[in-house]
Specification:
Blueprint lengths: L2 H5 L3 H5 L14 H4 L3 E7 L7 E9 L4 E4 L2 E4 L21 E3 L5 E3 L44 E9 L25 E3 L5 E2 L2 E2 H4 L5 E10 L3 E5 L38
Parallel strand pairs: 4-8
Antiparallel strand pairs: 1-2, 2-12, 3-11, 4-6, 5-6, 7-11, 9-10
Length: about 260
Amino acid sequence: GAAPLLETWPHSGVRGVPAGGLAAEEGGNEEFTGMGYWPRTSTSVVEGAGRGLFIEGIAPMGSILAFLPGRVILNEHLGCPESFAQFREDPKYQLSLRHDGHVIDCRNCRAMTEDDPSSPYFHNPWALGHMANHPPARSPRPDRPDGANAIALPVDYMSGPGKCIDENEDDPFLPVRMRQYIPNVYAKKPTTVFGLSMDVLGGSGHVEMHGMCLLASRDIKDEEVYYDYRLPEKPDNWPDWYMPIAQPDGEEWEHDNKVRKP
């Protein structure tokens, strides 16, 4: 789960984040993180790509770089063809599919953390994963290798065993004070049976929220973050800027990362 990771953050600094967020525009300050690196958004170094996600400082391989904010659409609510109508408009490729079939919808998330304190994106200055671009064919920097430097992985926020907790009920695995940092909300709440979610009944654990994060696939130092969008294999529908990335021999993805359009 992600709760132990959230526990490592310097909460006094996070509480002091000004309106607009720690990572707003050219923002970001190492004193707020205590981790040696922090994410920010700025103009991408890739021509024509708009804005991108950058890491300031040094993030070792395996570090969490950012979380993907937005609505979570559970696979249990995607059982009919009509449910996919909501996915047809995705011009910026900000719909992401987890391996378990849950969808993270970042389309309405701004480049900065929200000014509205009631927003689920307000408190987490690391909820900038949706700003990361697909890597160009050649690295814009000669001192950096070609290709992606991050991978998208599912992350689950777990509560304690035996039940699904109320939003105002404290829990040693996911304290109330930590839930403000979860940058996701359910588009439709999970189905429950006798107070237990389908995850619990299916033996997957006690998941209070599903999400995604970007993980460094190599050491990153003061550079832009890229991850493979893995668009569905329909070349006629690919944008001009998209170049598929060859996977290592024998490696196959169970699902496409981006949502397959009907």
